[in-house]
Amino acid sequence: MNLLLPWPLQVFRASIAALGLAIVTSFSMVLAQTETVVVAENAGAATQKELELAEERVFRLATTLIAPSIVRIETVGGLDEVDGILAVNGSTTGVIVGSDGWIVTSAFNFISKPTSILITLPDGRKFPAKLTATDTLRMLALLKIDASELPTPIIAPPESVEVGAWALALGRSLSPDQPSVSIGVISAKERVWGKAIQTDAKVSPVNYGGPLIDLEGRMTGLLVPLSPQSQTVSAGFEWYDSGIGFAIPAADVMQALPRMQAGENLRPGLMGISFTGNDLSGDAPVVERVRFQSPAAAAGILVNDVIVAADNIPIARLGNLKHVLGRKYAGDQLQLKILRKKDPLEVTIPLVAEIPPWDEATAGFLLKRNSLSTDAESEKEKLIVRAVFPNSPAMSGGLLAGDEILAIDGESVATADSLRKLLDRRKPGDQPRFTLRRQNQNGQAEEVQVSITLAGQPFPVPGELPAITNDKPLAEGENAPKAKGRFLEKLAVNGREYWGYAPASAAGKQPHGLIVWLHPSGNSMEAAVLKSLKVECDRRQIMLVGPKAEGKGWTPEDVDFVKALVEHLRSEYPVDPSRIVVMGQTDSTKLASFLVFKDPSIYRGAILVGGPTAGQPPERDPAARLHLNLTIPEGSRSADGLKKLVESLKKQKSAVSTIFASGDGSEFPDGTWAEQIGIWIDQIDRF
């Protein structure tokens, strides 16, 4: 339930210490009365109304004790939209944690980067505030006002916070005169990777930044939106008032306070390791990659090391390790125990806030896709070079189309995946030695070796590539799916309509790329898109599908629709999972990029025509490569902004390509644009 509790401001003009003593004394009396009522009820003598009145008195007194420390925060100016959320200026909540004007609140309250911040104290005084520091691990913000002798809350000892105990979530957004209260219980501790208390009290922007308190009026936590799946400032916002709310333990808030008061922005601690699995509850933490220039690399962590303990806590699964890391700041140290070929080792890793962006080392060649040996005794995959990019490191090193790759630096490679993992461990400037099988002038196979100096990102897309030939025809007597050409269908799971184009080659087994076209609001552009891309779909073995929005435009619910559509097409056609891209134009580019950023294991690239991304892309990850192609209409009002976005992405070592087009972006691009897009999709699984 929600209560709005009136309390007289004049009461708090007296000494806060005396007031606290009086309220605690009253509180103890009410508790004694409540216990008496409970005993009486058990004896059949008390009424339900008496119990409810006793409960309400306890809630009121607990709220009255902490209310003088809860302030109202008002923000002015800033961004209109962040992470797809409308960032509306208004009132939020904060808690005084220093009598000389220190106020802590939720970082979510400043998502719009406001130009002005105003604090209203419970006694009605108003002060401008300065944002002193932020904590992006626990999503806190610290403000400072020019005031003194302010009341601060009593902090509950960590050991007193118990699952099942009453919890009151307070805010001062709705009214400056009285706090709002939502009643619940503490439903779990150490949630969101060890950072948070969970409560079923209603938590939302109404009380973000407010205190979570116990029945003694002590602050047990500070209310913030959080999510186990994301570290962005808006993560968890979608759960507001759902019965799943989070609060940073008050003791942790106070522990971080001195560093934030000194102006230090606190950030999550990183060590620079990725692991062989991604199942947090099932996979053991076996090191697959160690980031170059990372603390883990400096500490001597190696590929295939197994982490068995962190800070003396046993680690059996990835989730255990993430739970320990979830509490660590940059600047903290992490003690690891590892097994290296069954030998135990101990290392100390100083965690950092940033690791230089992963720069994908690239040679500049393509393999034939899913080529199989014709050897009757073996169905071993052959790694045959299909194309070598002009002016690439591979060409300079002497790699030729038709070469079969056998080994890298003496380590055999049997699959395209194993080849990619070996190259992922190299950095730009490295010179891996390729062992190849090549036909000599006499037509005989011989082994040769070439060294290739790898380049970094962004890597230029070649101006031309040979068309794809069918390397995997159907076996004799094998039935082929029907090649539909252009088609219009409805998805069985939800009845939503979509159109598509399947080239004749999709009737075979050769893996095809897939473009998911998200049309701008109010215009499917079906005819224009198909006319532009049909030739390249045939030449580059690419399927095209256009889901249709319901109503005027796309909504968050369409994320699941697009995902279900892709899954359906993968079950019906030979879709290549490494070449599934989403394309949007003008107002649909944000959804297109959001899909790619959210599920890089499904969508490997985004084609954005005349529109921006939905925020910054996630950090580049060898396990989920993302490729971006931005078409910039030279005559559009967004052209300058898109050019700046491209430069920003390049600094992050993103795999970004740019195509400049004529017009203002309202029409579908013409000229050589389609050919450039076809080549771009054809090469995103390059090495």
TrEMBL record:
Gene Ontology BP, a term: proteolysis
Entry annotated with the keyword Protease: yes
Keyword Ubl conjugation: no
Gene3D superfamilies per the UniProt record, alphabetical: 2.30.42.10, alpha/beta hydrolase, Trypsin-like serine proteases
PROSITE patterns in the record: PDZ
Molecular function GO terms recorded: serine-type endopeptidase activity
Positions of the PDZ domain: 254-342, 352-413
Keyword annotations: Hydrolase, Protease
Short name of one Pfam family: PDZ_2
Annotated PANTHER family: PEPTIDASE S12 (PTHR43343), PROTEASE DO-LIKE 8, CHLOROPLASTIC (PTHR43343:SF3)
The family this protein is said to belong to: Belongs to the peptidase S1C family.
Name listed for the protein in its UniProt record: PDZ/DHR/GLGF domain protein
Organism: Planctopirus limnophila (strain ATCC 43296 / DSM 3776 / IFAM 1008 / Mu 290) (Planctomyces limnophilus)
Organism taxonomic ancestry: Bacteria, Pseudomonadati, Planctomycetota, Planctomycetia, Planctomycetales
